[in-house]
Design goal:
Layout lengths: L4 E7 L8 E7 L7 E10 L2 H7 L17 E2 L3 E9 L11 E5 L13 E5 L3 E3 L6 H6 L1 H11 L25 E5 L4 H12 L3 E6 L4 H7 L3 E4 L12 E6 L13 E9 L7 H6 L3 E2 L8 H13 L6 E6 L3 H10 L5 E5 L2
Parallel strand pairs: 9-10, 9-12, 10-11, 12-13, 13-14, 15-16
Antiparallel strand pairs: 1-2, 1-4, 3-5, 3-7, 3-16, 5-6, 6-8
Helix pairs in contact: 3-4
Length: about 325
């Protein structure tokens, strides 16, 4: 039987954006519990460039063994092409979006077709296009699982216990660092949805964008670093995280919480003395939670901003844009 082919972007050896190759590969077939999605758009996320680089962001002893060639990506939006015999939740022609298999297995999303577990998918909101839908899953579910509802019982890597979201309500003061980025700009909107007073940390160039999203205040870090502002918050969502996240202890009220999206060193004695809870988690695919987020996207309560779009064949240019930084929203690949 002749194999059906498709185009995909593959990595044959770790490196910079130049290692991305637009090639023909075998089209996948849906297995039990899966559907085949004809992809219209693919959202880019930091794990994409971490994988492309060979996970050099991690210490050598923690790096996974990668099998080459590999296809990057996990966020998709598209149309169901075919379903496995046991699938009843979706039918061919359904518009769907999802964070696929993350973080347990490769999704192979930089491709014209993706086989996806139905548990990772939700129906695409009719009021948004595939580009905006593809930009939503990982960033949206990350913000959701940090701020609203964990949705899983898996202790994240390098953490001792499960993350515990802080109840948000009117009067809760929330600081969002990296507020103009993918997770940050959705985090701002979810916190506002729950009634919180939200201060967004970003460069002044993003002020109007963040105010339009509902931020009550915008703190320009190029003028005043947040840790020097003297402002205190019940919760700091540091969507950047990493080695500098500990500086935000200065911004958390006694009994408050610091949530670094990318875990970094925080002095445990300093945190304990300030009675600050430091907690992080690993986003996981969830079609159930994505369906809840879809309702907010459908009604415009939450919107996803698009920094830029590139064709699948121009994935290298998309990764170069990501490396340049200072994004306002998400980068998306489009599939003809």
């Amino acid at each position: 039987m002749t194999e059906l082919m498709m185009h995909a972007v593959q990595v044959h050896t770790p490196g910079g954006p130049e290692v991305l190759r637009y090639e023909q590969v075998t089209r996948p077939e849906p297995q039990a519990g899966e559907v085949l999605v004809r992809v219209h758009a693919i959202g880019l996320n930091p794990p994409d460039w971490y994988m492309r680089d060979g996970m050099t962001i991690l210490p050598p002893e923690w790096r996974p063994v990668l099998a080459y060639p590999l296809i990057l990506g996990s966020d998709i939006s598209g149309v169901v092409e075919a379903v496995a015999p046991d699938v009843t939740d979706f039918v061919p022609g359904d518009e769907v979006f999802g964070l696929i298999r993350f973080p347990d297995a490769p999704a192979n999303a930089y491709a014209e077709y993706v086989a996806a577990p139905v548990t990772d998918l939700a129906h695409k909101p009719a009021s948004i296009d595939h580009v905006h839908a593809a930009a939503a899953p990982m960033a949206g579910l990350t913000a959701w699982q940090f701020l609203i509802e964990l949705g899983h019982d898996t202790v994240p890597p390098f953490r001792a216990e499960l993350h515990r979201p802080v109840p948000l309500h009117e009067g809760t003061r929330v600081l969002v660092n990296g507020a103009a980025g993918g997770v940050g700009h959705i985090g701002v909107q979810l916190a506002k949805w729950k009634g919180a007073h939200v201060v967004a940390v970003a460069s002044g160039a993003h002020r109007q964008f963040l105010e339009e999203l509902g931020a009550d205040e915008v703190l320009d870090y190029t003028v005043t670093p947040p840790e020097e502002s003297g402002a205190e918050f019940d919760l700091v969502l540091d969507s950047v995280g990493g080695p500098d996240t500990g500086r935000f202890l200065a911004n958390v009220t006694r009994g408050g919480a610091l949530f670094p999206v990318f875990s970094g060193p925080v002095d445990p004695e300093q945190a304990a003395a300030a009675e600050v809870s430091v907690s992080s988690t690993q986003v996981r695919a969830s079609g159930v939670q994505l369906a809840q987020l879809a309702e907010l996207l459908e009604t415009g309560v939450v919107r996803v901003a698009i920094d830029s779009t590139f064709t699948l064949a121009d994935a290298q240019l998309a990764h170069e844009r990501a490396a340049a930084g200072h994004l306002e929203g998400k980068i998306v690949l489009t599939v003809a």
